[in-house]
Structures are given as C-alpha cells and as structure tokens.
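Appendix B, Record 12. Input sequence as logged:
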Amino acid sequence: MARGPLHIALIEDNPADVYLVQEALKSNNIDCVCTVLSSYEAAMESVASGQLSGVDALLIDVNLRTGSGLDVLRAVRECDDLKGARAAILTSSDSPRDEEAARLLGADLYVRKPSSLDEFFAVVGSAVLRLATGTSAMVTRAPGTSGSTA
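Logged structural output:
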C-alpha cells in the first residue's frame, strides 16, 4: 500500500496507550511514520484542515476524553482527502453498540486492546499490518479470547 514508510495517524489521548502503540509498532518492525493526535479536538481539526492528507492508516481510540472516536471516524469517512485511508477503532470496551457503529461508519478493523503487554503488541501490530496490506476482518481479539470475528 505505502511507498516507503507507512504513514499512520494515531488518535489517542492516553499517553500510556500512545507509548504502547508506538512500542508495538517497533516490536513488530513496522516501517512507519506515526503522527499522534492527542485529543478529539486535534483530530477533528486535522481532518477538517487536510493535515492528514496522504495518511495510509488511522488508529482511533473510541473513548476520547472530550469526544467520541466514532465521530472522528465519521469525519474521516466524509473527508475527500482521506477516502483511501484505512481505519481501525481501538477500544478497551466490549460494547456491541460501539462495534456496530464502527462497522456502519466504515471502520476496517475494530480492535479490542488486550490487558497483557505481549498480547497488546501482537494484536496492535497485527492490526496495523492488516491495514497496510488491505487484509482485514471487522473484529480483532487477542489469541485465546472468546468471541467471533466477522
């Protein structure tokens, strides 16, 4: 998909999760440039202003402090500059309502953040690789957890 490094926009307001995602990218040897948007407002402004034009993939936390990652996804899908970008929703929640909304808004992946560090690295790394190659199923879970994938 990308020519050279993958350009990823990470929309996450928890500094610990930002660090973990960046470490997951490193531990999976993913050649990328990761732009971090650390608030709902920064994400919405970046989408509206075209600052994310050319991004290959977006990782969007669903539960941002001052707004919903689902609203960010909606704005991404309505933005002509981002039509070709693939998007994953990241969440700690098991909310079927959020999962369905993400699917309806055009999320390529819905990724539940595992609580174990090794599983987090594996699941996030796998999700980014799937976004980069265009191989996706709607739901990603850590190995050995219950639930179906679509």
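The first strand starts at residue 6 and ends at 11.
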